[in-house]
Design goal:
508 residues; alpha/beta; D-Maltodextrin-Binding Protein, domain 2; 2 domains; 19 helices; 40% helix; globular; SBP
Length: 508
């Protein structure tokens, strides 16, 4: 076996065991050491040509058009040759691990929330730059992501990255108003009434095709949030504060009530049997085809212009409206105030290349504010958008700028962005954003060393599915918690969360 082949085999084996980043980290790197700012002192030497910057992001390489006007403008404005290296979302973390192992990380890195274990490994193995000495050079980024954005990027007390500005995901229940009208039903206001309407949608042929081919409720696995929220808790393993004390939803006494509520609907046969495997695209398609009359989803998956057009083509009378919060429901979803959409990090090796490091910092600032931000939000001025007073209005060529989100490296001001991009849905977005939500703080909690959050969450998800579907009895719930604590040392994670959130001042 030649050397290259042997290395490939070794990497594959280590990736499978999740050990690649740590096993191949450079021994000389010391994450505890605070480097001097690269740009401190003398100005860095300047290259004769543009400075090449490559960023690894998750995304489809085909998403960027051949005529990439964003890259062209960034390159010209900043004197760089910027390349987005996009990898399919499922393979992104593995690719980063391989690049880290070969000490060949690109100049900018995006790590998605689901891959944070890779971020923690890279930070703790000295592969990422501590941004603390450079924070005064990231003024526009700080305006975009806030102080909390950098707090979320801390690992063992050091700022190895920052979180992009948070997104708004205003989920809720949506209902077919035309079906309510056809069956002579009122809009449900309680969980009991919701169940009765769901039964009617399942059994009374609301689409009038003479077939029993509809369901009451559809959605994705996240529909659990709607049922659990009706009883004051939310998705399993979420941290929130009650009466000044930190609570994990798994240990909230209301969790059992929420499980029983979900079971009540499932046993009634009114829930889409594919609910736990549906993707958002499945829900969008089922809504358009009139598969069910109630959906738990956010506006973008149901009432964007193209979705409404498709639904109206099948049934011109179809009308989906947002269901107000039901009586007694303390929340319809959670909002993670520590939410991490993705972490943006810079490799430690750039402190030895001050010219490139300065250009990277300049790039991050440019896309966070002013002309650069508008470029990556909406496209080119007077081509894809124009100013009408203080308001930005998109032009008929707005479709050419549909890919610019890939260059939103630090995120975007979500509500202003949505109001500008989706004027027909603006009222619904505001209405759904105003529904009651439970603040959770998981984004601030970094799993302690030796605790595998991915494996623990996988176990929790599998066991909760058994409870929802009635394959496990609610009476066995406490035994499930005991197994979680014994198998995964879960209390260490709870103690770390309490310590972290007390340190941040959220818990007294």
């Amino acid at each position: 076996m030649n050397n290259k082949r042997w290395v490939r085999v070794l990497m594959g084996t280590m990736l499978t065991s999740g050990l690649l980043v740590s096993a191949c980290a450079p021994k000389a790197a010391d994450p505890a050491a605070t480097p001097e700012p690269a740009a401190k002192g003398a100005e860095p030497a300047k290259s004769a040509g543009p400075v090449s910057i490559t960023m690894a992001r998750a995304g489809s390489p085909s998403a960027i058009p051949k005529e990439d006007f964003v890259k062209k403008e960034l390159d010209a404005k900043l004197g760089i040759n910027f390349k987005l290296d996009l990898t399919d979302d499922k393979e992104h973390a593995n690719k980063l691990s391989v690049l880290a192992a070969s000490q060949n990380l690109p100049d900018l890195i995006e790590i998605k929330e689901k891959d944070l274990s890779v971020y923690y490994q890279m930070a703790r193995n000295g592969l990422l730059l501590d941004l603390t000495p450079y924070l005064d050079k990231l003024g526009s980024v700080k305006k975009q992501v806030g102080e909390e954005g950098f707090t979320k990027g801390k690992v063992d007390g050091k700022v190895f990255g920052f979180s992009q500005a948070p997104r708004i995901v205003p989920q809720g229940f949506w209902i077919r108003k035309d079906w309510l009208d056809k069956l002579g039903l009122k809009t449900p206001t309680t969980m009991d009434e919701l169940l009765e309407v769901a039964k009617a949608f399942t059994e009374k042929d609301p689409d009038g095709n003479g077939k029993k081919d509809t369901y009451g409720i559809s959605g994705t696995r996240e529909t659990e949030r709607g049922f659990l929220g009706a009883h004051g808790t939310t998705e399993p393993n979420k941290f929130y504060i009650q009466d000044g004390k930190l609570v994990n939803s798994l240990y909230d006494p209301n969790m059992k009530k929420g499980i029983e509520e979900f079971q009540r609907f499932l046993k009634a046969g009114v829930v889409d049997p594919e609910l736990f495997t549906n993707k958002v695209t499945d829900v969008t398609d089922k809504a358009a085809k009139g598969f069910a009359g109630i959906f738990y989803e956010q506006w973008a998956g149901l009432v964007r212009d193209e979705h409404v057009k498709k639904m109206k083509e099948i049934n011109p009378k179809a009308e989906l409206v947002l269901l107000p919060a039901l009586q007694g429901a303390k929340n319809v979803r959670f909002n993670d105030v520590g939410q991490i959409t993705a972490i943006i990090a810079i490799p430690k090796k750039l402190e030895k290349d001050p010219e490139k490091l300065n250009k990277v910092l300049e790039l991050l600032n440019y896309v966070s504010e002013g002309d650069g931000a508008n470029l990556v939000y909406y496209g080119q001025k007077d081509v894809h958008w124009k100013k009408e007073g203080d308001k930005i209005v998109l032009t008929e060529k707005k479709g050419e700028a549909s890919y610019t989100w890939l260059y939103q490296l630090t995120g975007r001001p979500e509500m202003d962005y949505l109001m500008t991009k989706f004027p027909p849905q603006a009222a619904l977005i505001k209405e759904s954003s105003a529904l009651p939500e439970l603040k959770v703080y998981n984004g601030f909690v970094i799993p302690p060393k030796g605790f595998n959050i991915t494996d623990a969450n996988r176990f929790i998800g599998e066991e909760m599915l058994k409870f929802y579907t009635g394959k496990a009895k609610v009476e066995d719930y406490d035994a499930f918690l005991a197994s979680l604590e014994k198998t995964f040392n879960f209390k260490v994670y709870l103690e770390e969360a309490d310590k972290t959130l007390k340190g941040l001042g959220y818990v007294k």
